[in-house]
């Protein structure tokens, strides 16, 4: 092969390498913003500054969840006074009314202060549980009451605990502590009825693997 041919081949290789570099650079700048957004779970526009610190999507969702919990647990606690067959279930219902009435007042005040819009109706799942309970009385009511409320508290506990552990907002952190305590109290009360079907509760996720050393 002549020197001229070798020189031509090298020029082609250099051009090809430069072309690949340009394409790779464009790809990185195209994908990176989306990847960054996915990594943090929200874009910067989803956050707002408040006097008590940054307020993010999880903080707002936490306030919504607390509000919706009260929107179905207060009337369900009231309903239990007429439909429950067990005095213990009725007593637990009264605790739900009392605790969520206090929480509801707190969440409304905090949401107004932080400019977070709250719902005025329970979510579709909660509405379904309320409709289901409205068809039952006596022991059948007691079992459904305990099962649905215990399962719901287990789900919301995970969300509230995550916010308590990671929020950057001091007022959300303080209120999340209150909510965690109330949810734990209610889970214990519901279990004290003796009507909870623990086998029907979701299995906890497996533990995370130990980080490599």
Automatic annotation (TrEMBL):
Gene3D superfamilies: 1.20.1260.10
Domain of life of the organism encoding this protein: Bacteria
Keywords: Membrane, Transmembrane, Transmembrane helix
Transmembrane stretches, start-end: 12-32
Keyword RNA-binding assigned: no
Residue span, DUF4142 domain: 58-188
Name of the protein in its database record: DUF4142 domain-containing protein
